[in-house]
C-alpha cells in the first residue's frame, strides 16, 4: 500500500488481493463488515481498515477454503479469525524476510574471493 495514501479505488484493492473488482462488490453484499465509503460520484473508496477486512475475507475463502456461509460464521467469532489471520500474516512476513536474506547471502557468496585468487 502507498505510504500516506488514505483511500484506494476498488481496482487497486482488487489487484492487491488478486481478485476481480466484481468479487469485492459481491463480498460487500455478503459481509457487512466490508463497507467502503463512497465519494460524491458513488465510487468506492477503501481505507486501510476496509482492505484488512477484505484480506480477512480472502483468507477465509481462498486460503482456508470456507464457503460464504462458513466465512460468515467464522467472522462471528472475530477473536479466533483475527488470531489465525495474524499468525498467517506474520508467517508470510517471515517468509519474505528469509527469502530476502537468502538472496543477500547468495549475492555475498558470488562476490567472495577464493584463496587461489589472492
- Which band does the percent of strand residues land in? under 5%
Main sheet strand line-up: 1-2
Shape: elongated
Tell me the series of helices and strands, N- to C-terminal: HHEEHHH
- Look at the helices and sheets and give the structural class: mainly alpha
**Largest sheet entry:** 2 strands, antiparallel
Low-confidence spans: none
Number of β-strand runs: 2
Helical amount among residues, as a percent range?
55-70%
The overall average pLDDT, rounded, is 87
Count of alpha and pi helical runs: 5
Question: How many whole angstroms does the radius of gyration measure?
Answer: 20 Å
Distance between the termini: 47 Å
Any overview of this molecule?
This protein has a two-stranded antiparallel sheet with strand order 1-2. The mean pLDDT is 87. The chain has helices at 10-17, 21-30, 48-63, 68-75, 78-110; strands at residues 37-38, 44-45. The protein has 118 residues and is mainly α. The protein is built from five helices and two strands, in the order ααββααα. The protein is elongated, with a radius of gyration of 20 Å.
